[in-house]
Amino acid sequence: FRRVLFRSDESAPLKVRCPAWLALEIRDSTDLPCSDNSLDVRLKANVPIPSGAYITLTGLLGTGTPDGAIAVASNPASAVTTGNFSAGELVMQLMSEIAAHTNFTLTFGVINPPSSPSTFIQKIVRLKIQDADGFQPESPVSQPAGDIIKVRTGQFTVKSMGQQTPWPGAANTITVTLKTDVPLFGATIHCAKIGRASCRERV
Question: What is the distance, to the nearest Å, from the Cα of residue 37 to the centroid of all Cα atoms in its chain?
Fold first, then answer.
């Protein structure tokens, strides 16, 4: 027999527990512009989430992530393996039931934008669930570690200029040294131009 966990007030015949989220939160891994950003979503419900249910995350706007299928890792493993991303929404289907009171995590990647607006507005991420009886059709997802997909403004940590010689008429070499606190190019950078806030700084 399958063990059923219930409270004393749920022992009455035909008493049905109202489905609710005990945990529903999202975190990201980096604030570097134009970089791969891993998003972790943690869910826990007070009832089983049935196999076949569709879970949709909305509000993932302003990224550089192309529309289409993206890989999703889950724990428990293989509950979700892929999702479809379009216009800031990620749709996933459960391949196996998630037991009640089980911490369930979803991990997927997006591409951070090149910059954030000077007046940043927190993204309102919501979770929609379909084909799971009793759940609210839409619930807000908290961001306990801070705003997600909010990229830092790049700054010069080193900016200096020097010359080889002050002698008149002599051949001279000018050396400019720059160092930033964000990567500007390389295999991990996915856009051609990073935020321009630092470009006006004088050396």
Answer: 6
